[in-house]
């Protein structure tokens, strides 16, 4: 059970804020980390990278490369001021800024007059095989895409490599394509997770055919819940991509839509796998319960066979252990004529033989009834 | 079990009135409390508050501040006259007035020629952790919103605070926005309740992995029903907000719709959580039943092992307890040649040893069959 | 169990007629009762009532009050001629006449060129708590509404009272309103039935927490089936009202539609309650089965504990009951050196003490394993 | 079980032909019977009937009565040439001809340029209560309807009688009406079958309340499968009639559509009944399983009560059967001071009395725990 | 179990490539085989066939027969260069080329400006009865159709035969028709597989009515999963054919659409069969579990009957085996007045008789309770 999934808590972190709070208030989650800012400014020819901890680094880069496409990657939400500054620079609706820090959003795609807002769930396993379900949000406006992640962990290394290598459409297709590329990377991670879950399903099922124990049930239940979490994240992701496909906003141009169609297919494939795996967990539970019940039956059968064979025999032994006897009133001696069998010279062997025969008959009856075959 | 949910009765209060009653009749529920009236008249500059027990306080305020937005909060439905007066002042359809006092409405949004009518369910827990499911209804007309609640309990303190502080759009965005703000506060409460239910699910599940007892089943069932009640209230709430989003009535202006879109997202999130929690209660029940059955199996296994080991041994003891003997016809004495083993000087120890060997063999067989491993 | 629901037979009465019969044939059910005819002719000023057993009474009234609205209530379908006459007077399609007497129609609303036809199910309980599911059909044409019921039982007393009192819109809103008023009364009855079913659910559930017995299962199943029957009747009722709301026929004018919208909401509420109740019956069955299984486990546990404690003790007693002994070949007397314990002066008490200790150790082991706690 | 439903085989006959066969190939099923041809040529005035075994009889009749409506009833599909001839005469697409002989089609309605093609399933029980699921297909073109059935069995006697009597619209409403009339007859048969199934459900349920045995389970499963087969046939029938209602082909004129609307209602009613019956079979299975488990519990309870009462008593008897004794070393006689109770003059009666008291106490304890009440 | 289905592994092969890879990259699966290329160039008059291993053979044929329709069948995906060449020749989007080698696509139909792309799943059983689920993809452009299969295995022999014989529309109806013909052949295979599965269901069910054993459960589960896999492949196939029916691309002309409609019907029939079979597997599992439980009950009943009969008898024997006796203090002899029955001359026979009577009474009681009838 070393590599089995950790139990999922239902309320790891609550929605921040209080009942009836004003909408649009930016409330930083308690355990949020300080933001790291990376700015990637690129066009077909060059890629300029800049890192820092304040908004200044972003503005510098915007000034330096006015005609480049800028991907501002912000990892960590622990700075309300930063988010407000970004909101002010790009003139973003406060409700959108609230959604960025309110980290339990479902995947969605909202279209505003001159910018787009997209949310995804970044599903991953930690090294300890614990499910991580973080929020990823992206603001797309003109040639700028600003993305927000909850932790400092590197998640988009592959995208950065593609950006560095400059192959494919990534350097030329604008901010909308970058939004697609990040979303697709998030979806790719699902496939990796599902492959792991598939392996674990296989392992659990292998154990089913050996010796069943309670851990199979617990693990299957954990797998099932992990699948529920994945489905909850992936289902709205599909709607989101569909919304992106239908938008008429020029940031999502026909070329990007072609790629989005591909991402949409991936999404459907993921849903498909999740549903199949869920059906399989159910069937594993069914088999597990049936195996437990079968095993119980095997045990009960042994009890029954042994009891039923020995109960009559023990009764017979009890009968011949009774002290019935006749005391001769004259001689005051025990006379043999009361339990006549007892005084038969070979009575003991007759009795043992009789018991043996009764036992054998019973075994034959049970054999005929098929009790010795495996259930 | 101190903090577990109270059992839900299915018919706490009936639909008032009799079969075939005329539609539009205002029938006050038997346990309705006398109304408390609060009028909040506000604009960007000032907030005028007025409390009282009769309709006069409302009319006074309307006259005093003709250009303000008025929120008339009526807590308690125990005065049919008051509701009729309001109906007369705002010229409301009698069917709407009936719905206000008929306190088992589903959430809905009805649009009339010059006013709007919205119903929500105010879900809450009492201090004793009992589920309360009261009706909230709102009439919106021009610059007036009149809200009706069943009890005197303060539910919208946060909204009143925002009104007092004057921050955000609340003082300037009109009666439609106030309708949104109240609805959103009601939805916020769901999150708080679901957080509590999530905690309880965690607690129940923790107990699953320890010693299972019947209370787990009862609590899980209560949780499940609470979730059914929440779903029944929240599902039509979603439709209601959707209807509000699609209305072309000027009271719900585009700015309010932007906020309603946010409330709609919250609604979906709540539904999502409810569905997940429901799936989890099912899986807890499955594990519970499986645990009970496993435990039963453990107990039966002990019975079986001990019985099966001792039954043959007891039979052997019974055999050697039989009184077979030969009475010498001459000496009238018991002769040792009938149950020869009994008169073997070491027969007793041989017998004990034989029993011991049989017992050990059985233990080994069961060990091999894996009966000593936990199921 | 005095007041529990009667078992529902699946085929109380068959579809009349034979396979391949010509469509439009009026086939009177075998147990149909002779019709009672009531004619209510009313306008805002007066209400003229007339009763009888033949079509003459209807025609007379039509002549007498040409400008009134007429509600012809026909209770009993046992007269094919009457129905044919009505068909001829109002020029009704034979297929519609067939539907009136073919009493297993689903609720529906059919629109013809110059008349409307509506079917509902009149659900009720008899005094013996048996479910009655009769057909109600209504023909609406100009200022006339003709309704057909299966039995003489008074079902619409409340409507007649409202008609007599003249309050509300009932006397002025025409035949379409009357159709609504009758439908709404039928829906009101559902609420009354559901309140009764809710009470019974509460009672059954109370018994669950006491001593479970088989009757709980049978009653729950009967409740579930009653709910299935109700749902089968109410679901198409919703579609029917929806069809009425969307018709452009002038008989269903906007005022009536406002009221129908209200009836539609009632219908949804009923469906909602039925679905919740169904979920509750399922959960009661789950708890019942779990309780039975728990109880069985309790019983088995007692068996196991007592057996497992006494089985080894009885074995020990058996051992000391064995007749091993040495017969001194010289004196021919039983010598004490074969089962040495037996001839120990305090052997008996040592043995009893040993058994007692073994018993106590077992009790402690079982206590530690939690076998004495309630499952 | 004399009248219970026969088990359904899943693959009674396979799709004829091989993988990748050319579409439109007419492949006669192996067990097809030679066709019987009946031609009914009718108008309002007369009905001319003609029977035979070759296509000539059809052509003759067409020539003889050029202005009549012709119903060509072909029973038996065992003649590929006949079907090709008909295809040639009416210029039918080969794909349609393939569907006529490929006897596992779902009900469907296909519209071609100048003819219509409809498929239904003819569900029936044989005398041995075996489910028969044959294909019925109809070609409608101008004033001709050609129907194909798999067997010689008479299925449409009622339609022929109506044709002979000339009542109703049958003789005047054309080939489209005949298509409706035959479909409606097929639907009528469903009602008859469902009535039988309803009776059997009642019978099975009656037996539930008496002594449960395994046959209940098998019969219920057969009923459920029969219902699955019926649903599979009826569901597409509904779609088919819906397609017929929406066609603009003049063969299905408005008058026929009015009747088809009626058939559509029947279809919905059948679906409704099937779904209800399916729910009932599920609930019968639930009760059956619960009854079996209850019965098992009853048996186990008796075992437990008797075992638990006698186990301690038998132990006591065993204790007093132990051979502890003291042999006086001087007199070599058995002395009474080792198991003192044994030598008490009334010890036996005290022991019996003690056992009796222990037994009674146990009975009282079990009584209090409610073990003697029925589960 | 010789012919039962092999267990399905969940992750036989993974999605090739790494997380975040550039879209459109052609990644050859590790176990891909080297491609075999077959080119079939045909028109109504002739069929020219050419085989080879490089793209040259295709280009040669295109040049040789410019006015023919060309079917290029590529079996084996192990050559990235070949696929890139084909992409270059026909100017195909890289995303499409990626889909060809990424062999876990769902069936789909994508329409591009001047070509079509279709994916199907080729379901089959190996000789060892293992499920094979390979990808089939087809590119259709002008008069060329290029198909890609994963293995060298011959799957479309029937189509090639039809091509050779030249019957039907296959030689004249263009590349779109060929796409249909191949898809239809793939669907035909489903029928063959389902026939096999139906046979196996029958076999499994036969065994249900005999001696149940665990293999029934495992086989049924394997059948269920095979059905899940089939459904996952067939469901999107339906959507794909539907998309093909609605396309306005001239490659899918009305004639082809007529045939596609037929394929669509087949698809629905397959779905229908799969759903029915799934319901049957569930019902087999239900019966299996019920049978196991019944069998267990039978065994327990035997244990109970035998135990309950012998337990009191053994107790009685134990009582008469007690050593109560009175030792005459004077004579030091055992006196008969303590257990008086023991010294009754016929006591033994009375006791045996009493035991016999008690046993018979118990048998009668159990008989009356119906314990001897089969559950």
UniProtKB/TrEMBL annotation, chains A, B, C, D, E:
Cellular compartment(s): Cell membrane; Membrane
InterPro entries membership: CorA_cytoplasmic_dom (IPR045861), CorA_TM1_TM2 (IPR045863), Mg/Co-transport_prot_CorA (IPR004488), MgTranspt_CorA/ZnTranspt_ZntB (IPR002523)
Location (main, coarse): membrane
One GO cellular component, as annotated: plasma membrane
Molecular function GO labels: cobalt ion binding; cobalt ion transmembrane transporter activity; magnesium ion binding; magnesium ion transmembrane transporter activity
Transmembrane segment boundaries: 302-322, 348-367
UniProt entry tagged with the keyword Cell membrane: yes
Keyword annotations from UniProtKB, A to Z: Cell membrane, Ion transport, Magnesium, Membrane, Transmembrane, Transmembrane helix, Transport
Membrane topology: Multi-pass membrane protein
Family to which the UniProt record says this protein belongs: Belongs to the CorA metal ion transporter (MIT) (TC 1.A.35) family.
Annotated function: Mediates influx of magnesium ions.
UniProt cross-references to NCBIfam families, sorted A to Z: corA
Name of protein: Magnesium transport protein CorA
Lineage: Bacteria, Pseudomonadati, Bacteroidota, Sphingobacteriia, Sphingobacteriales
